[in-house]
Amino acid sequence: MTESRNETLDESDFDVILSNDIDFSGTARLERPFLVRGKITGEILSTSLLVVDEEAVVDADITAPRVVIRGTVKGNVNASEKVHITLTGKLQGNIITTEICLESGALFNGRCSMTASPSPSVQETAPKL
Description:
Blueprint: E1 16-18, E2 23-30, E3 34-36, E4 39-46, E5 50-52, E6 57-69, E7 72-74, E8 77-85, E9 90-92, E10 95-97, E11 100-102, E12 107-109, E13 112-114, H1 122-125
Parallel strand pairs: 1-3, 2-4, 3-5, 4-6, 5-6, 6-7, 6-8, 7-9, 8-10, 8-11, 9-12, 10-13
């Protein structure tokens, strides 16, 4: 599995891809690397890498080990390992994670709590936006 750090991820790195013509509402539960190119409203619960691509729009709380935001996210993010917001990424919501990377040009409005161990549920510790 390719790490999100300084490497280009392509479609072959993902087992699940939500294409740009899909608009999903509800709870998405995933165990495999997930690439979002469309729209999701609700909640995303993943046990693997989650990438929100540049044109994607996510209005959902996210729980995953590693989250890469290249597009737009409105919701809280709980990542037990890392959150990476790229220069095209926009996040309006709170973050709980052990490691964060904000590239120059990234937009982040919210609070960030850094933890030393796997983080508690964002819904339990952060106010809803």
